[in-house]
Amino acid sequence: MKIVVTSILVDDQAKALAFYHYVLGFEPKQDVPMGRHRWLTLTSPNDPHGVELLLEPDAHPAARAFKSAIKQDGIPATSFGVRDIQAEYTRLCKAGVEFTQPPTDLGPVIVAVFDDTCGNLIQIAQRH
């Protein structure tokens, strides 16, 4: 068994696609209309056949409450690995991304946390 799709709850799929593609650099993979919403996935440009990130609409009331609660508590919705966290932090800051936590050394990893503009905090992490 392996992970093939993982999802992140977003408040607006078009806005999320623009952020995750043009700002973060993920590549669109699937875009299938599904009524009011879409099956909308992206992959890492370094692994186009790898795990797909599904931009899942947060249309269910429980989803919005969950997102709000974990964001308010400062908990990232997911984590993305990076090779050079300082370079990624600098690049994203220049692109206007708002960080809630700058790169912080936590022993085996250095992490930083930013707002994805779609209702989530996202962590980036670099292993030592």
TrEMBL record:
Q: Which Pfam families match?
A: Glyoxalase
Q: Which residues form the VOC domain?
A: 1-127
Q: Which domain of life is it from?
A: Bacteria
**UniProt-listed InterPro entries:** Glyas_Bleomycin-R_OHBP_Dase, Glyas_Fos-R_dOase_dom, VOC_core
Known PANTHER family for this protein? GLYOXALASE/BLEOMYCIN RESISTANCE PROTEIN/DIOXYGENASE, GLYOXALASE_BLEOMYCIN RESISTANCE PROTEIN_DIOXYGENASE
Q: What is this protein called?
A: VOC domain-containing protein
